[in-house]
Amino acid sequence: MRVSGLVRHLAVFAQALRERGIPVALSDEADALAALTLVDVADRAEVRRALRVALKVRRRHAAAFDELFERLWAPESGEAATAVVNAARDRRVPHGRPARRLAAAGAGDGERGERDVPSGDAPAYSPEALLRRKSFEECTPEDLAAMERLLSGLASRLATRPSRRLVPTRGRGRHDPRRSFRRALATDGEFLEFARRSRAIEEPRLVVLCDTSGSMDAHTRFVLTFLLALKKAARRTEVFAFNTALTRLTPWMVPGRIAQTLDRLSAGVPDWSGGTRIGECLAAFVDRYLDGTVDRRTVVVIVSDGLDRGDTAELVSAMRAIRSRARRVLWLNPLLSDPRYEPTARGMAAALPYVDRLLPAHNLESLERVLPLVAA
Asked: What is the C-alpha to C-alpha distance for residues 344 and 307, in angstroms, rounded to an integer?
């Protein structure tokens, strides 16, 4: 099998998975191509495991994945792939971009005319890259521990983002002619020192309302871990949990003691992992906290799958009140990672007209994409 043939074979396999309702992104295909260079592709069981991990196949799709693998990943394909991958290894092609490594191996065999391997920068194969893209539903407690450092870095980037506003500074920065002339008046017109300005570090003003009902259980711990790290870096962050009742979490959150704080929250918040009444809880937030926590500089972030058992009229009224005061309203929905998802659930459909952006929140990479919207 030529290099381009191997890439095409993987693309056909990924397309077959998508047609069976298994979400596979192009970045997942690049990861799968990288994984094939790191396993024994003569061992079909090892190839199957590598592809299932790299393509991030969920448990509910395992049977369909296995069926398509048996049908499309024939033994002869594995043998040909072995020759290509071994050629890449034997030529000691530098690590970095898997698609280019395979293309280099094929070029040595006189196949320069068929290098239809993607020419863009494919993501490097690394545990950190896989962890950033791994769905929270599939993460283990060990993954949570490994992710804490990444989440802390993410929160720090948000809290130290420079604003567009220029403020006086004593260090390096742009010249400020107006202030320089004013200073010179005190020294008979002598410019002894130029005044300077630099971009201010504007701490974001955030109010986060996090759904802790049972349907959100797989995502709640990871989102709260991020919020704990964020609370340490951005002090003007208010955090609330809601399910069948609203609870202000800000006094409970102790940055730096993530595991203990999460255990304390799950034990102390009423009806944790239970049902949810989004409308009633947001109405309670509006009545008790809206005036003191939300103004025109505040970004309100709601993290929920929108599955509501309560009255949608109450939800609409609360969302209208929040939107009227906030700078921006973002709704993070883990279900949005599925390309077939449509916001037709009663709660989600009722809230949508008052939401500026509806965004996925199923892995670390999706949280990273929220940063510019929160800090802008």
From this structure: 10
